[in-house]
Amino acid sequence: MLEILPRLRRFATGLAGHPSDGDDLCQMTVERALANRAKWQEGTRLDSWMYRIMRNIWIDETRSRARRGQTFVDPDAGERVGGEGGQEARVELNNIDRAMQKLPDDQREAVLLVMVEGYAYKEAAEIVGCPVGTLNSRLVRGRDALMQMIGDAA
Amino acid sequence: MTPTPEQIAAFADDQLDGEERDAVATAIAADPALQRQVEAHRALSAKLSAHFAPLMDRELPETLTAPLEPREAEVVDFDAARERKETRRTIPRWGWIAGPALAASLALAVVLPRGGSDDAPGALSGELASALDSQLSATQRADADTRILLSFANAEGDYCRAFTAPEVSGIACREADGWQLERLATGSEAGASEYRQAGSDVSDILAAAQEMARGGGLDAEAEAAARAKGWRD
Q1: Contacts with B173 (C-beta within 8 Å, 6 or more apart), sequence order
Q2: Residue A124 sits in which domain range?
Q3: How many domains does chain A fold into?
Q4: Which of A141, A142, B36, B173 has a 20 to 30 Å separation from B71 between CA atoms?
Q5: Structure ipTM over 0.85, yes or no
Q6: Are residues A100 and A89 located together in one domain of the fold?
Q7: In A, residues 52-91, which contact B (CB 8 Å cutoff)?
Q8: Which of A31, A62, A52, A46 is nearest to B67 (CA)?
Q9: B233, part of any domain
Q10: Does the entry feature the keyword Cell division, yes or no (chain A) (predicted)?
Q11: Is A24's CB within 8 Å of B143's CB?
Q12: Same domain, A102 and A72
């Protein structure tokens, strides 16, 4: 599990859009995975299983925070990031981060899983729990939106 | 054929195979506009990978690695002695409970809570009591003010919880009339000279909890069940 932690943490940061929210999410994922380790089936991919746990926690968190009327760190508040998280959390929020945060959650996770984490469509669809075709079209919509926001001159 | 946007993206990601792949490749080869789309997809992929790659190189904080590191020898011995047959199963349980707790012990200031004059000595109330009532060690937030280190049943069969909070750290057991403080860690980082300097309150507390625990710590399920019963048997 230690081996996949850096990747898991990257995915968490991408989902949460903020390094310290990402680390909280990552820690909750590790704790839940350990508490439920009996449910992991030997021979299946541990990383996919943990990504699935993470995105489920993230969905729960997003809903409960929305209910409580709280918001995450403002995506446009790039210059403030790092003040609360200490130096290692100082990751520059740039136009890519801001564009990512403007994507709907389902598109953002599809983009992260495939384009950043390098999962095949089929594996990503299994993590998210949707048909491959659905994942494919979320991905297309997410990509189109990103290209518009950050410009085609990639 | 005219490829759909989905097919073009999937082609750019090398996610098509067989006839579909050949058909899409042929269509793209014949149309410079489609070629530009494929290039744009790939450029975006490269840009995103490059943007997120540095996140992999960050040093992992202890809060994330501690739960995965081997537990303290002392805890192993306790477990082995108490529940020999369950040793394998209990390794992660103790590991992830003790790890972050020990890490958190570094800057812990501990004072004795003073209840009102009506309270029995050691009776806990307020935020701490409600954290003891409601918080589960499996699901609590890493940065919660009060963290549950371990839940267990003592020799009398009462549920007890080892905890650490900003102002107090110790073990409380659920008596008929509420949470009763059983043990208290003494120690302070911040130069409060009236308190004994103790570097590892949390490990002291955990060691005391191990002494008191009848059958080892509760696992996540047993803990949740105990909460459902209001911590009363």
Answers
A1: B154, B158, B159, B160, B161, B179, B180, B182
A2: 95-154
A3: 2
A4: B173
A5: no
A6: no
A7: 88, 91
A8: A31
A9: no
A10: no
A11: yes
A12: no
Residues A44 and A69 in one domain: yes
Closest in B48, B56, B63 to A115, CB measured: B48
Looking at beta carbons, which residues of chain A come within 8 Å of B10?
121, 136
| CA distances in angstroms from B216 to A128, B114, B227, listed in the order given | 37, 30, 17
Give the tokens for residue B93: 């349980």
On whether the CB atoms of residues B223 and B151 are closer than 8 A, the answer is yes
In which domain, by residue range, is B190 found? Answer: 62-228
Chain A interface includes B48 (CB < 8 A): yes
Q: How far apart are CA B123 and CA B176, in angstroms?
A: 11
From chain A, the residues in CB contact with B47 under 8 A are: 96, 150, 154
B44, B49, B138 ranked by CB distance to A146: nearest: B44
**CB pair distance less than 8 Å for A34 and B9:** no
Q: Min CA distance, B142 vs chain A (Å)?
A: 7
Collapsing DSSP to helix, strand or coil, B183 comes out as strand
Are A131 and A56 in a shared domain? no
What residues 169-198 of chain B have any CB closer than 8 A to a CB of chain A?
A: none
What is the CATH classification number for the domain harbouring A149? 1.10.10.10
